[in-house]
Amino acid sequence: MPPNMQDYRWLQFAILAAVCAAAINIFGKIGMEGIDADLSTAVRSVVQAAFVVGFVTMLGSWNKLKDLSGKPLAIGMIVCSGIAGGLSWIFAFRALKLAHVSQVAPIDKLSMPLGILLAVIILGDRPSLTNWIGILMIAGGAYLATWKTTTPANLPGFPVITSATTPAQPTSAPSSKP
Question: Between helices 101-108 and 129-145, what is the axis angle to 10°?
Answer without folding.
Answer: 160
